[in-house]
Amino acid sequence: MKEKLEELARKNGFSLTPESIVNLSSKYIIDEYYLWLCELQKWLLNNHYISIRVERFYNHKREKASYQVYVDVDCSNTSGAFINEKNKDRSTAFESYELALEKGVSEALKLIK
Predict the structure, then answer these.
(1) Is 102 exposed, middle or buried (0-12, 13-18, 19+ CB in 10 A)?
(2) pTM of the entire structure?
(3) What is the pLDDT along the chain (113 residues), one digit of tens a residue?
(4) 49: which residues sit within 8 A by CB, 6+ positions away?
(5) For 40, 65, 94, 99, which has the most beta carbons within 10 A of its beta carbon?
(6) If DSSP codes are grouped into helix, strand and coil, which group holds residue 83?
């Protein structure tokens, strides 16, 4: 998905690449792709008024966290569009924040006209 997402972002005018993210300190391990996703999320908000919100929730026994992602267009829809891996079926959640953010960014890029 990474390559596909980078290509879609480039087509929509986002020029930053994961490789262009620079480590500010060598004592921290920083995932350049995750930082790139964050920059892309900010760019979508500032340039296209598309907000991506990732929320964490637990199962009823609070054993394991899962994540849901919402994409708000024009920042006017407070509930947002629910996005997940199974055709927007609310029964599916993402296993990590990063996977949810990646899916949200991907879906948001498809909304740019």
Answers:
(1) buried
(2) 0.71
(3) 888 998 999 999 998 877 776 654 444 556 788 889 999 999 999 999 899 999 988 776 667 788 988 888 875 544 455 454 444 444 458 888 999 999 999 999 998 87
(4) 73, 74, 75
(5) 40
(6) strand
Strands laid side by side in the 50-58 sheet: 50-58, 65-73, 81-83
For residue 79, the one-letter residue type is S
Helix (H, G, I), strand (E, B) or coil at 35: helix
> Which stretches within 1-113 are classed as H helix?
2-11, 32-48, 97-110
What pairs with residue 81 in β-bridges? 71
Q: Which residues contact 39 (CB under 8 A, 6 or more apart)?
A: 16, 21
pLDDT at 22: 61
In whole angstroms, what is the distance from residue 74 CA to residue 45 CA?
9
Q: Quote the CA–CA distance of 94 and 113 in Å, as a whole number.
A: 27
